[in-house]
Write a structure and sequence with these properties.
With about 475 residues, the chain is an alpha/beta fold. The chain has 23 helices and ten strands. It has two domains: about 290 residues, NagB/RpiA/CoA transferase-like (Rossmann fold); about 70 residues, no CATH class. α16 crosses α19.
Length: about 475
């Protein structure tokens, strides 16, 4: 995972600070409320939304069940179309592949389409270490990059910034990265957008290498798909001479027909649009193999694992790999809205990040072990997920793993171990119940715990034990005619 997130505190500690930031909470509250209301209206337009959602779930599950088959099919199709496929087991290997490909062109800069996969592996930092500058071209990603910041939302990475903050960032930083901001720049959205266009245009026209991710990879044709709203992606995908796409192996879908389902689910769930303004598809180098016509002369596809195979092995947790990165779950989550994305310490914030990050990175750090607990389990995330990921189910599943793997308290662990053994041995449990009933007059009213635990027990009485257990009562009455039916 990106080195930018290394050393970040556990979620409770980070959230304790972020929830005190009044500006952050105001920005997030306004933005998420606006997005979720627009999404609700867009989804309500479709009478068959439930059927589309079920179809999306089934398609992704089918792809995951035969992932090896579809990946090999995609590799064969991309290769036949003139592209080159590379396999990366982890972030380090993916970064090395991309850096070597860029250096082979002799270039020292790249333009980038917004990509969660490249954020996940820390590609920008890895390229910088090799003397290569990566320019983000998505407006929100540009704001984050110029502000020396981290993204805080899957769809709107700069959601934590307001217009005044963006204006100040443009004024201060644009000149260091290229064309400076216009004199007298205000916080008008039109002026900010125009400043970004002017700043980026020179990079689009100069760059010889483009780097992208992909929303989908169609196995039967080897076609990659990028959906976006600004047109910057189209510029990065068509103008450079070399295109390198870093794609998580879970992005594969079996057929072109399957794409039709997701081109309805994704825009309404993410931007609340009926369709994306820009949907770019490309298959290798096309019929001309790049010799003539438009488009890159060389295409490289880097298929990224980085913990996905291990996630696939978990029968409960694997459903996180269905995610199509729409961010609908973030926009309805009461925890995300108040804590913000940075508190999750990952490129994947919010409910989906709370189940995806611990599986990709493991539960070995305090931060990752805390993420499954960053939820109220209210279920709103599941209700809006366009591919029906049961996020609360996975959260509970990962919480169990975190407790089992964590250090825990020695007394608590011993008590739980003893209780587990007792419940697994009915005869011993019956004997314990009889002993408890026989000695009930001797039991204290409160549990005499020392230290800080005393504050908890002082306000809670122990329950009264009955004269006999239900087990004993049942054994006595089950054969009587006047007993229970």
């Amino acid at each position: 995972m990106s080195s930018a997130y290394l050393g970040m505190p556990a979620f409770p500690e980070a959230a304790k600070d972020s929830t005190k930031d009044a500006t952050l909470r105001a920005n997030l509250g306004h933005a998420t409320r606006t997005i979720r209301e627009k999404r609700a209206r867009a989804v309500a337009e479709l009478d068959d939304w439930a059927e589309l959602r079920a179809a999306g779930k089934e398609i992704k599950d089918r792809a995951l069940r035969r992932l090896d088959h579809y990946l090999l099919q995609a590799e064969e199709a991309v290769t036949a179309a003139g592209g080159t496929v590379h396999w990366a087991a982890d972030a380090a290997e993916a970064n090395r592949i991309v850096a070597d490909l860029v250096k082979a062109t002799g270039e020292s800069e790249v333009v980038k389409v917004k990509s969660m996969a490249t954020q996940e592996i820390g590609l920008n930092e890895a390229l910088a270490a090799e003397g290569i500058t990566a320019y983000e071209t998505d407006l929100a990603e540009l704001i984050v990059q110029l502000g020396d910041d981290l993204p805080s939302h899957i769809l709107v990475p700069a959601i934590h910034r307001n217009r005044a903050e963006i204006r100040d960032i443009f004024r201060e930083a644009m000149g260091r990265w290229g064309r400076p901001a216009p004199e007298g720049l205000t916080d008008s959205p039109a002026e900010l957008a125009e400043a970004a266009r002017l700043h980026l245009r020179e990079k689009f026209l100069r760059a010889r290498v483009g780097v992208s991710g992909a929303n989908f990879l169609i196995a039967e044709t080897g076609t990659l798909v990028v959906v976006e709203s600004e047109g910057n992606g189209r510029m990065c995908l068509t103008l450079p001479e070399t295109l390198i796409s870093v794609v998580g192996i879970e992005k594969v879908i079996p057929t072109w027909q399957d794409l039709e389902v997701f081109l309805q689910l994704l825009p309404r769930s993410s931007t609340a649009e009926r369709m994306n303004p820009y949907t770019s598809t490309w298959t290798g180098l096309g019929p001309s193999k790049g010799a003539d016509g438009d488009g890159p002369k060389a295409f490289h596809l880097v298929l990224l694992d980085n913990g996905r195979t291990a996630t696939l092995a978990d029968q409960v947790g694997r459903q996180a790999l269905r995610c199509i990165r729409c961010s609908a779950c973030l926009n309805v989550c009461p925890v995300y809205e108040r804590a913000g994305g940075h508190a999750y310490g990952s490129p994947y914030p919010g409910p989906i990040g709370a189940i995806l990050t611990p599986q990709l990175r493991g539960l070995g750090t305090e931060l990752d072990a805390s993420l499954p607990f960053a939820s109220t389990l209210c279920g709103a995330c599941y209700e809006v997920c366009p591919v029906a990921i049961d996020i609360p189910e996975v959260l509970v599943h990962l919480r169990e793993q975190a407790v089992e793997q964590g250090p825990g308290h020695r007394v608590e662990k011993a008590a739980m171990k003893a209780a587990t053994w007792l419940l697994d041995h009915p005869a011993a449990l019956a004997a314990a119940e009889r002993a408890a009933s026989a000695t009930r007059a001797l039991h204290p009213r409160k549990l005499p715990l020392p230290g800080p635990a005393k504050a908890w027990t002082d306000t809670r009485d122990l329950p009264d034990l009955p004269a006999e257990s239900f087990r004993a009562w049942w054994a006595e009455h089950r054969d009587r005619k006047d007993g229970p039916a």
